[in-house]
Amino acid sequence: MSGHSKWATTKHHKAAMDAKRGNLFTKMGREITIAARLGDANPDMNPRLRLAIQAARKVSMPNENIKRAIARALPDSGEGEYVETRYEGYAAGGISVIVECLTDNKNRTAAGVRAIFSKNGGNMGETNSVAFNFSHVGLFVYPKSAAPFDEMFETAGLAGALDVEEEDENYMITCEVSSFGAVMKALEKYGEPETAKIVWQPKITTEISEEAYKRLEDFIGLLEEQDDVQDVYHNAV
């Protein structure tokens, strides 16, 4: 009889999934807190907070967790101050990487991110060392079933969008960061977008092999496992 228990394997898998879910909820909660702190605690008056709450609900984050995250933004909450910070550098093979974080301890976060770069053949650089190769824009993704192209193009354009592109079965709508709220409001009549966030889009991409891309994905996975890391962007294809 095997000494390896199926139940032990199941428990291990569940524990790993619970850990990932907990890590995700931590990231979502921090984004909700900082969005409420920087803007209005009422999501109807704060597009960033409304978006953060929508994203949290998509991954089944409990309402109580969402309420607590908003409460932490209040002046008398006694919670530490989270700040947004960005790290840049190169992954193995010279791939440009931007790492966005929310942290209450910049020294801890910088040390953790730097260690992952150095242990995986990368090199963390100074601020703006790779950002010049990216555009910082708002991105909305809607299915083509939401509206005809001409209508979507006109609605988004009138609200200040930069472009509307067709990609597979979706519309990819980009705008200046300053126009994000206005474009989001104009597009609400088409329902909830599949994606609505501020992103770093590469201006120039680097084509790499399938094997190299797998190594890059492993590297990004290590970064995303860090509680302080919110998003990771790169220019590889």
Total separate domains: 3
**Low-pLDDT segments, ≥5 res:** 1-19
Strand coverage percent: 15-25%
CATH fold label of the largest domain: Alpha-Beta Plaits
Structural class: alpha+beta
Tell me, what's the shape? globular
Mean of pLDDT = 84
Number of helix segments? 7
State the helical fraction. Answer: 40-55%
What is the CATH class name of the largest domain?
Answer: Alpha Beta
- Radius of gyration (CA) equals 20 Å
Number of strands: 8
The largest sheet is:
4 strands, antiparallel
The separation of the N and C termini measures 48 Å
Query: Biggest sheet, strands in spatial order?
Result: 3-1-2-8
CATH homologous superfamily annotation of the largest domain: YebC, transcriptional regulation domain
CATH architecture of the largest domain: 2-Layer Sandwich
N-to-C SSE string, H for helix and E for strand: HHHEEHEEHEEHEHE
Word description of this protein:
This protein has 237 residues and is an alpha+beta fold. It has three domains: 6-71, Integrase, N-terminal zinc-binding domain (Arc Repressor Mutant, subunit A), CATH 1.10.10; 83-132 and 204-234, Alpha-Beta Plaits; 134-202, Alpha-Beta Plaits, CATH 3.30.70.980. 43% of the residues lie in helices and 25% in strands. The chain is built from seven helices and eight strands. The chain has helices at 6-38, 47-58, 63-71, 106-119, 149-159, 180-187, 210-224; strands at residues 83-91, 95-103, 123-125, 134-143, 161-167, 170-176, 195-202, 229-234. A four-stranded antiparallel β-sheet has the order 3-1-2-8. The longest helix has 33 residues, at 6-38. The model is unreliable at 1-19 (pLDDT under 50).
